[in-house]
Amino acid sequence: MDYIEIKIKLNAEKNYLGEILIAFLGEIDFDGFYEDNNTLFAYIPENKFEKQLLEDILKVYELNYELAVIEQKNWNEEWEKNFEPIVIDDILAIIAPFHKQNFETKYKILIEPKMSFGTGHHATTYMLCKLMPDYDFVGKSVLDFGCGTGILGIFASILGAKEIVAVDIDQWAYENTLENAERNNISNMSVIKGDISNVPKRIYDVILANINLNVLKKDIPALSKLMKYGSLIFFSGYLSIELEQIKNVCKENGLDFVTSCDRDFWNASVFKK
What pTM did the predictor assign? Predict the structure, then answer.
């Protein structure tokens, strides 16, 4: 399948708009991003691209764009050129096979990013990976909902989780998570291609959900039914200014706010049933 590449030139004084645009574009099926020289590159499968939706978003910020069709093989080359390691203090380094640096961290995860991961989303992954070691995963059952590359589920296993179910609607994410689990010698993770309706109906001790605002708001009621008293749910994938919306939906579904953190306009939070 070919992809559409959208190139958006950002004003140097307003380069923060890149993070905001990533959030909005993610809600209309763009699934890959990177920034270079005050320019945002965004990618979407050609069969999902709706020109009017894109232009409606850019019109608000008075931004123009250039469009190109790229072949899938070139898409993967872009990931390799632009995927930067994620290093979370001295806790965790998330690296790809082509990274040669040596990181003195407690844990390491090796991933092949491919099409299921965008460098523009590092802040959300970073925050969740930073929050996770503060909680007990030993012997716990975990759902990684919207698993992407499988990083969060893999990290849960490293932290001692007993079993992990990883779910994503995207075929690339499904295949990539299987590959990355094997690459990190993770044997207690099952991977499912699908949405909330395909998640095994059972109780999980911990749920990890790094998606976008609209999906979270729609699926929190169903996710809360997969939790017991004391279960935790970690959220990210939405802007800091959208946290109140997450809190409101969680309150309606019996989930109590525990904590949150911010990074580069993004938020990550933890709730407890």
Answer: 0.78
